[in-house]
Amino acid sequence: YCIVLLAEGIYTTSAVRQSFGEFRSTVCGRCLSTMFIVITFVLVVVWLLVFSLSALPVYFFYNMAYTCHTISVLSETPSSINQLCIDARQYGLLPWSAVPGKACGMTLSNVCKTREFSLIYDHYIAAFAGAGMTVLALLTFTVSTTYNFAVLRYLGRKGIGPRC
C-alpha cells in the first residue's frame, strides 16, 4: 500500500509538472487523490481499532508483571503472598463462568517466571507500539494528501486547471 501511495503522490504532482512544463493537475490525478484519501481514512479507523484493542492485553500483562514483582519482593512472608491475585475475568479476557479465572500467590509467581509469559508480554507491547506507529503514519499521510488535494482544487479554480 505504501508503494501505491508513493506512486499516487508522484503521479498527482511531479510527473504532471514534468509533462506539462508548469503546474497542472489532471482530473484523473484529483480522482486518484480523492480515492486514496478515503481508503487511507478507512485504514486509519481500522488501525485505530487495532491500537485500542491491543491496549487491553498490554494493560493486563503489565498489572500481572507488577503483581509478580510484588510477590518476589514479599517472598519472605508467605502468608501475605497468597492474598495477591490476578483475575483475568475482571479484564474481560475470560468469561465469568471460567474456572479457575484467577491465579494467586506462588501459582502466579510460577506463571510469571515462565519464558512464555515474557515472550507474550513483549509481543503484545510490540503489537501495541506497531499499531500506534501505523496510525501516526496513516494520519500523517492523510493530512499531506488532503493538503495536496486542496492545493490542486484551489489552483484549478484559479485557471491553472487540467488540460483537456
Automatic annotation (TrEMBL):
Keyword set includes Transmembrane helix: yes
BP-aspect Gene Ontology terms: axon development; central nervous system myelination
TM helices/strands, residue ranges: 34-62, 124-150
Pfam family, one: Myelin_PLP
GO molecular function: structural constituent of myelin sheath
GO cellular component: myelin sheath; plasma membrane
Xref: InterPro entries: Myelin_PLP (IPR001614)
Keyword annotations: Membrane, Transmembrane, Transmembrane helix
Protein origin, superkingdom: Eukaryota
Descriptive protein name: Proteolipid protein 1a
Native source organism of the sequence: Cyprinus carpio
Organism classification: Eukaryota, Metazoa, Chordata, Craniata, Vertebrata
